[in-house]
Design brief:
There is one protein chain. The strands form two sheets. A ten-stranded mixed sheet has the order 6-5-4-3-7-1-8-9-2-10, with helices on both faces. Helix 2 packs across helix 7 and helix 6 runs parallel beside helix 7. The protein has eleven helices and 14 strands. It folds into two domains: 341 residues, Alkaline Phosphatase, subunit A; 73 residues, Arylsulfatase, C-terminal domain, CATH 3.30.1120. The chain is of the alpha/beta class. The longest helix has 25 residues. The structure holds magnesium ion. Magnesium ion binds next to loops.
Length: 458
Amino acid sequence: MKTSILLRASLISASLALCVTAHAADRANLVIIFADDLGYGDLGCYGSPTIRTPHLDRMAAEGLRFTDFYSAAEVCTPSRAAILTGRYPIRSGMCGNRRVLFPNSAGGLPPSEITIAEALKPHGYATAHIGKWHLGIHPGGRPLDQGFEHSFGLPYSNDMDARPGLPRGASGSPDPPHDGWNVPLLRDGQVVEQPADQTTLTRRYTEYAKQFIRENKAGPFFLYFAHTFPHVPLFASTAFKGQSRAGIYGDAVEELDWSVGQILDTLTKEGLAQRTLVFFTSDNGPWLIMGNQGGSAGLLRDGKGSTWEGGMREPGIAWMPSRIRPGVTAELAHAMDLLPTALALAGAPAPDRVTLDGTDLGPLLFEGRPLPQRPFFYYRGDQLFAARLGQWKAHFKTQTGYGQPKAEVHEPPLLFHLGRDPSEKRDVAGDHPKVIAEIQEAVKIHQAGVVPGEPQLK
Ligand code: MG
């Protein structure tokens, strides 16, 4: 009798364990691949005539390519805070006059913020961060404090921590000195190399990513792969250096494209392609003041640092063969949609008492259903500069990314129709006072719901 009860109990627990395992394996994996300072016009599938990106082009051909995908900020730190938390950076305090975190900054992503990794971990997800972090180096704000079980990469931008005596402008050089920056390479919070050998970073990140995928193929897993490049100083491994028609910038992007191909191939080989959503995008637009070492926003106006389209509209490609119907979409979507999308993939509830700014992209990706029409807000630091509603965009203030000391205030705001005038050349505010009033109303509603977080970029 006792044996049979024990046997039954063990059978029940075995079937429960099977249930949990099967359920966990059903949950889709998520891989976010995040480029740094890559422009809207820098990929073949977004019209670059010179940079070869066959793997990203294939990803786009097999997946859904967005024409109107936005980063949540015009520079690095706030953009990263937003993609991981699903919130405008004003809410977390990860934006401000200093624009990004520096090695001497005291702030970081507050522990109270819930990242995608923290949201997925309780649902059985293995989590890893690879590449650039730039969300804080102090306790509470580091990758392992923010839900990542594994971390391999740089704590901030690759042009920070310059060696004393480094000539001005070295970071934007076509052949930057290998030992010019003392930036460390960290594994799980420990320095493993300093200065990091930047020529082999993309290759080493990629190997680490492939290993993480293979080791966690039983799933589910979340991989946040935030490339160091094509942020200046630009480096490429010997296999890619000097190979592109677009100089070292093109070499770095072509190596990044190779890396994407490696990830997609690994997922396919391991039989994970149909249950892994891979999303590719960039943190902000091209750093135009770097000249040939900065990218291109294509036909969009301005670049990194500005709230013109070139600063925040990014390549956005979703891939999950046999689940996503291949195509191109003009739906407006943004980086803050990835957290709600991740929650839906995991069957996880939204975090309690947290205001999220995105929406689940699942219905669009998997069923081709349009997204709800919603406004999008363009912040520079903690200031709202512009807003988009449908095809209309109003600028309340404008300031070029770098080199214009003060913002120009527009009263009435400038108004552009992004469908007819994607380059924002023809202000039509005078003809559409009703549209401006509608956008102003959307801004009012948004601002009434924003409680600014304690500023972190001091
Ligand atoms: Mg950046």
